[in-house]
Known about the structure:
This protein is mainly beta and 139 residues long. The protein has one domain: Jelly Rolls (Sandwich), CATH 2.60.120.10. 5% of the residues lie in helices and 41% in strands. The chain is built from 1 helix and 12 strands. Strands 1-9-6-11-4 form a 5-stranded antiparallel sheet, with no helix packed on it. The site of thymidine-5'-diphosphate (TYD) has 6 residues, from β4 and β5.
Amino acid sequence: MSYVNLTNISLQEIPKICDPEGRGNLSVIEKDVLPFDIKRVYYLYDVPSDSCRGGHAHKELQQFLIALSGSFDVVLDNGKHRRTITLNRPNKGLLIPCGVWRELENFSAGSVCLSLVSEVYQEEDYIRDYDVFRSVVGA
Ligand code: TYD
């Protein structure tokens, strides 16, 4: 697992189709939006505003997060630097490569975090100890 430069991580536009008759928006994620094939989809909801999710890194898994509703903050950490990115639009996504420690916090009431991921669930892919993470990335 190599060191990830956090400045290369940014919100990505998801194509949006605005209805010409004002019936609302439609966003679509096709192959060209993501650099991986989706193997799993899961979502977080009913998250209390004072709760923190995440608190781990992945060895192989890549992940694309979208605030389908409401907002939340994603704190990214490469072992040396931290950066917080707010997700609050359903047509913006955040691609998190492997090797990045993440924490999700400040969930607004009713928010929904959709997660599209590159791997099936495997606990062995997680690093849940921050000190272990730091030593693995050589920080
Ligand atoms: P975890 O990935 O730690 O959640 P978060 O990062 O959002 O805080 O997962 C929480 C629990 O759910 C953990 O016991 C593993 C389990 N889980 C599954 O069984 N399958 C899954 O696809 C996911 C994402 C988690």
